[in-house]
Amino acid sequence: MTELLGVLGRYALKKISSLGRSTIIFLHSIIAIPNLKKSFPLLVNQIYFVGVQSIIIILVSGLFIGMVLGLQGFNILKDFMATGSLGTLVALSIIRELGPVVTALLYAGRAGSALTAEIGQLKASEQLSAMEMMAVDPLRRIIAPRFWAGLISMPILSLLFCLIGIYGGKLVGVDWLGIDDGIFWSGMQASVDVMEDLGPMVIKAAVFGFVCTWIALFNGYDCRPTSEGISRATTATVVQSSLAVLGLDFILTALMF
Amino acid sequence: MKYLKTEIMVGIFMLLGIIAACVLALQVAGLVLNSKAELYTVYAKFENIGSLRLRAPVRIGGVAIGRVTAINLDGESLTPVVSIGIEKKFDKISSESKASIQTSGIIGEQYIAITPGFYDEDLGTTYLKNGDFIADTGSAVILEDLISKFVFNSSQDSSKADESAKSSDTESTKE
Lengths: 257, 175
Fold this sequence. Notes:
The structure holds 2 protein chains of 2 kinds.
Chain A: H1 2-31, H2 36-50, H3 55-79, H4 86-124, H5 127-133, H6 138-176, H7 181-191, H8 194-221, H9 227-256
Helix pairs in contact in A: 1-6, 2-6, 3-4, 3-6, 4-6, 4-7, 4-8, 4-9, 6-8, 8-9
Chain B: H1 5-28, E1 39-45, E2 57-60, E3 63-73, E4 80-87, E5 98-103, E6 110-115, E7 133-134, E8 136-138, H2 143-174
Parallel strand pairs in B: 1-7, 2-6, 5-8
Antiparallel strand pairs in B: 1-4, 2-3, 3-4, 5-6
């Protein structure tokens, strides 16, 4: 009996203390922003890494998701003689749900895993300890710029995803299947609202960026400094971020729409 | 000053983000920049507003001239009062006009259609101005009511025969 309680207690303490460490890391890294002059080049580098280099995958997947939505939507709406609603269907489903969520999933796979592996490698090769030795705070120098870069990049990536997705839907619906151009856009414009749809989309994307980056950075910073530890941390990053994004998406949708 | 390639790429990235936001707002959401057109408000009492919503368009002959700015319930008569904001440039609308709630398509959004009335100073009609009430209104047509009326009417004749048969059945079971 005591054995069982001990196992349970140790497990709980381990989880809670890791949550505590992640909070400490998070607080340290957001406190680090006032030193803008020094950290700006670092931030630019990180935005280039997590944002600019993710553009291709975001655009390609956005285009195809929009095209698939256009095709499937057309096939179903055709039965109800309501193909004029295709624009509304594509725009709302992309802006409200698919845009931020798929972007976040791709971001977790493309950038989050890379962040974890990079920081884990820094830790395994004891570069983080070396920085501490030189009185350079690794949280400020390594973690903070990556965190802010993720927070800034995700909404932009998500906006790009939505835009290209809607144009993908337009490509299929209007240019290939022959829905009228004016009906497609006017139906969309009548139902999409800047404050009610686009605003929550950007907020969602920012929250996802925050969560994914935080999970990735913490897993890297907290990993066991061996090659196996790094690989486990990378896997954990992708799994945890995906679950967190999907779960949070429901909560945010329930709160905002 | 020379910039690094990274910095330029990040600049392009940011710019792309801003452009995407603008295109989404203007093209997809149909944001109109001069939507702050000056409005004057008239009121209309309806029996039933159906599912009319705030910001629903107000149209004359299909052309949008304003929008619904508020929907309230009159505390005493318990009838809905709809505030209709009409753009200032449409100031030649007769007070004899009729406001009715209509639906675009069979199951589309509801909007207020104003049918212009006659204008004759000798008969005491005026142009609508801020704070006026539109007297002549037509309530929303509620699809469910129509359907139930239709079903009820058409089944009435045939059900009479059924009812008499049923009542005799129930009587026999009671016994």
